[in-house]
Amino acid sequence: MQNDVDFETLKTEAEKEIASATNMDSLLPIKGKWIGKDGIIAGLMGQIRTVANDQKKQYGASVNALKTHITEKIQEKISQIEDSRSAVEWVDLSLPGIRPKAGSLHPITRVIRQVSSIFEKMGFSVESGPEIETEFYNFEALNVPAHHPARDTQDTFFVTQDRVLRTQTSGIQIRTMQAASLPLRMIAPGKVFRVDHDATHSPVFHQIEGLMVDKDVHFGHLKYILRLMMRELFGQEREVRFRPSFFPFTEPSAEMDVSCFQCGGKGCKLCKHTGWIEVLGCGMVDPNVFLAVNIDPDVYSGWAFGIGVERIAMMQYGISDIRAFYENDVRFLSQFSFVI
Ligand code: DAH
Fold first, then answer.
1. Is 96 exposed, middle or buried (0-12, 13-18, 19+ CB in 10 A)?
2. pLDDT digit string, tens, across residues 4-59
3. Partners of residue 282 on adjacent β-strands
4. Which of 187, 207, 217, 209 has the alpha carbon at shortest distance from 303?
5. Which atom of ligand 1 is nearest to the CA of 250?
6. What is the tens place of the pLDDT at every residue in 193-245?
7. How far is the centre of ligand 1, averaged over its atoms, from the C-alpha of 332 (Å)?
8. Residue 283, ligand 1, Cβ within 6 A
9. How far lies 216's CA from each of 18, 183, 194, 229, in Å?
10. For a pocket test of ligand 1, which of 194, 211, 282 has the largest count of ligand atoms closer than 8 A to its C-beta?
11. Is the pLDDT of residue 109 over 90?
12. pTM (predicted TM-score)
């Protein structure tokens, strides 16, 4: 019986038919004819009963091989047909679009960029320094000698005996004055570290340092530029006021307040009913700081400031817990996706 079936001819015939199909409509009947429930292959399988016992095995194998071959050819053909369909067939223009998920700038990054761009427009360079700093740059050169109480107030993380995680960006003032030629104008954003942790203090936070050194630089320049920065950040109607303060690296030193942008100065919860919000420390560069970097304080003068970035971001966006900045909660971060 086996000899009655010419597997080779069947194979060639099937291949020819499959090859002739140009789309699914013409392929499906061919598929049915060969490997469908009542197709040729099924028929051949049925005939196995009539095959001589010693040839059954061989016969079954041949039918199976033919079936596998035809199935593969049909599969190939289906792929070919799908590939050749034009893209247009697959695009349903009536479906709603899918908005791609775009990231957003972290509010801290945004404040740093905003402040940097304000100062870059005025010709300030943007500097940086190491986060692990020597005591010389973090304290000594800034007129904070060993055993000075100001070292305690900054709750320093020590890495080794004389290396600290910088407690302030002020050390970049020193590095820049050593490296750059005068006159100079710079700002320096960066991470700083202190042993402190609650709703308004984080052990790591960000500051932006500012420094301008030239002949005849005076407090009026400082006032003008810091007021300009506040107006850019919080609105053109903002006023600033300066209160005497103390920093080892500035003399005189001041703390600067900005008129409350929520109540306009009348008094509200945000400004604790004073009409003013404290924003930064500043002052005229102490002569001892100039001496530490071999700049003659009789020839040059300068002003400096340091501002806390988180505080600015908290005020700009009404954020009450500083920890929200570091938790990387997408629900928090995605609220800033409107900001490019
Ligand atoms: N480094 C000070 C701090 O961390 C901030 C500061 C105050 C920086 C006055 C200055 C400055 O440059 O002049 O609290």
1. exposed
2. 789 999 999 999 999 999 889 999 999 999 999 999 999 999 999 999 999 999 99
3. 254, 305
4. 217
5. 13
6. 999 888 778 899 999 999 999 999 999 999 999 999 999 999 999 999 999 99
7. 30
8. yes
9. 92, 11, 35, 22
10. 282
11. yes
12. 0.72
Distance 140 CA to ligand 1 centre (A): 14
Q: Give, for 36, the enclosing helix (H) or strand (E).
A: none
* CATH class of the 107-336 domain in this structure: alpha beta
Give the pLDDT confidence score for residue 70 in this predicted structure: 96
Distances, alpha carbon 292 to alpha carbons 196, 285, 298, in Å: 30, 12, 14
Q: Report whether pLDDT(183) > 50.
A: yes
Over its C-alpha atoms, the chain yields an Rg (Å, rounded) of: 39
Q: Which of 72, 93, 75 is nearest to 83 (CA)?
A: 75
> How many CB atoms sit inside 10 A of residue 239's CB?
14
Find out whether the beta carbon of 304 lies less than 6 Å from any atom of ligand 1: yes
Please indicate whether residue 247, judged by its CB atom, sits closer than 6 Å to ligand 1: yes
Ligand 1 within 6 A of CB of 190:
no
Rounded-to-integer distance, Cα 272 and Cα 59, Å: 96
Query: Rounded to whole angstroms, how far apart are CA atoms 146 and 144?
Result: 7
Q: What is the mean pLDDT of residues 69-83?
A: 92
Residue 303 in contact with ligand 1 by CB distance below 6 A: no
Which contacts of 113-120 are long-range, i.e. CB under 8 A and separated by 24 or more positions? Answer: 114/232, 114/233, 115/187, 115/189, 115/208, 115/229, 115/233, 115/307, 115/309, 115/312, 116/187, 116/189, 116/208, 118/228, 118/229, 118/232, 118/233, 119/185, 119/187, 119/210, 119/229
209 touches ligand 1 (CB under 6 Å): yes
153, 169, 249, best to mutate for ligand 1 pocket (most atoms within 8 Å of CB)? 249
Name the one residue in this structure whose structure tokens are 């997408």. Answer: 330
Does residue 284 line the site of ligand 1, with CB under 6 A? no
Hey, whose CA ends up nearest to atom 6 of ligand 1? 306
